Amino acid sequence: MKRIPLYLQILIGLVVGIAIGFVAIAAGGEAVVNDWIRPFGNLFIKALVLVAVPLVFVTLVKGVAELKDTSSLSRLGGRTVVTYLCTTVFAVIVGMGSAMLMRPGDVIGDDVVAEMGQKYADATSTIQLKQSTAEDGGPLRFLDD
Hints:
mainly alpha
C-alpha cells in the first residue's frame, strides 16, 4: 500500500481539526475546548517560537562557517542586507498602496461606526468582568502560564 505524502497528511489533519473545532463549539463544548484543548495549542505555538530564533541563528552560523573564502562574506552580508531592505520597502509599498486604493474605512457610515463601538465596548467590558472574576483557568492552566 502506498504511503500518504506528508504534506497531504498535514492538510488532512488541518481540515479535520478545523471541522472538529467547529463541531465542538456548535455543540456547546466551548468550556471543554478552552480547558482541555487550547492549552496544548498554546504550548505548541510557544514551542515553535522558542525554536525559531535558535534555528535561524544556528543556520546563519553554519552558513558562515562553511564559507571557503571569507572575503566573500562581506559581499554576501551586504547583498543580504540590501535584499532584506528592498523586500521590506516593497512590502510597505504594497501594503500602503492597497490600503489607499481600497480605502477600507470609507464604506462604513458614521452611524455604523458608533453602533459597532458601543456593541464592542459592551462585549469588552463583559469579557473583562469574566476575567476579573475567574479564579480557575481549567485543569491545564499551568501549560498556559
